[in-house]
TrEMBL record:
Any one GO cellular component localisation term in the record: membrane
Its membrane topology: Multi-pass membrane protein
Highest taxon of source: Eukaryota
A molecular-function term among this protein's GO annotations: serine-type endopeptidase activity
Name by which UniProt lists this protein: DSC E3 ubiquitin ligase complex subunit 2
Annotated localization: Membrane
PANTHER family in alphabetical order: RHOMBOID-RELATED PROTEIN, UBIQUITIN-ASSOCIATED DOMAIN-CONTAINING PROTEIN 2
């Protein structure tokens, strides 16, 4: 139950049982457990920003279409601008956002996470500078000329997967009451006035436990307004297009390119016949990982959780992760 002051109204919405089991496995596990790629991305986000400051090379990763692209023809900047953040504030918000997105790797696994970051990297790297130089700058009469550095587009592409894949644990409504309502509560108004006066509308806002993640993302997207909006929007669009299998040059996630299993420390699994049994084996590792994390978070033994496996309880998760491997 969220903490609320007396002048605020909070209301929790109940969730289905399978919904709560899924969020318990992904949300309640503390720290960076079972998220080696997210941990690496988090360390890289901070370390790259510090390295740019120590070596005083921040000017090499930002992009000014004029003069960097023309007349100087420094097109290599279109490949280097995602190396790191030149601003410590942006690095802080990006690190916080990456930490919030750790649950995506828990849901997907290391192999799919690595495949997603690798296959979307050409789009998140090349599209923002190309759109800025060839479209936005001419349309804005050379007003938009700057592209800030940092892996903002890749992080927002991952944020799109967080939005589509990870459900909320609970929702709550925050509302305010007016002074008239407070006066009626104190008994200062007469009974006739209380009966004749229409109810005063209150301002309410429906939030969820995922709202803090979106607040951090909005802080990052608005950090250098309006320049940072371009990589943020491009990253989100690339993430949505990847999930919908609309990116040119990429096959479907079920039969397309995948990072070799040995790269992420896993063993290659032979693809078997397609059927209900094969689909159950496909999600066996995911179920085992979820049950282990639930046991860690609640103090229960993993063997007791393993006995509760069932196709009926996991059907909601399978439908939610229909594009998983």
């Amino acid at each position: 139950m969220p903490n609320c002051s007396p002048d605020l109204i909070c209301q929790l919405a109940p969730q289905p049982e399978h919904h709560l089991k899924w969020t318990a496995a992904t949300m309640l596990t503390s720290g960076l457990t079972n998220t080696p790629l997210t941990k690496t991305l988090l360390i890289y986000t901070i370390a790259s920003s510090i390295a740019l400051s120590i070596f005083d090379i921040k000017y090499l990763v930002v992009i000014h279409v004029s003069p960097h692209f023309w007349p100087y023809a420094q097109f290599w900047r279109a490949l280097a601008w995602q190396i790191g953040f030149a601003n410590s504030t942006e690095a802080l918000f990006a690190a916080m956002l990456v930490y919030h997105l750790r649950v995506v790797e828990r849901a997907w696994g290391k192999r799919k996470m690595a495949t997603f970051l690798l296959t979307t990297l050409p789009y998140t790297t090349l599209l923002p500078p190309l759109l800025l130089a060839l479209l936005l700058r001419p349309l804005s009469l050379n007003t938009l000329n700057y592209l800030p550095s940092g892996p903002t587009a890749s992080i927002f592409a991952l944020l799109a997967q967080y939005h589509a894949t990870i459900p909320y644990t609970f929702r709550y409504r925050v509302g305010t009451t007016s002074a008239d309502v407070d006066a009626e509560t104190d008994g200062s108004a007469s009974p006739d006035q209380q009966e004749n006066k229409p109810p005063t509308p209150s301002l309410s806002l429906l939030l969820s436990d995922k709202s803090t993640t979106y607040i951090v993302a909005s802080q990052l997207a608005l950090s250098q307004f309006p320049a940072m909006l371009l990589p943020s929007a491009v990253g989100w669009i690339v993430g949505v297009a990847w999930r919908a299998e609309l990116l040119p040059g990429l096959s479907s996630v079920s039969s397309g390119f995948r990072v070799p299993a040995w790269v992420v420390g896993e063993q290659e699994r032979r693809s078997g016949p397609v059927g209900p049994g094969a689909e159950g084996e496909r999600y066996e590792d995911l179920r085992r990982r979820m049950e282990g994390e639930v046991a860690t978070a609640s103090g229960l033994e993993g063997s007791g959780q393993a006995q509760r496996r069932g196709t009926g309880e996991d059907s909601g998760l399978v439908d939610r992760l229909r594009g998983a491997w």
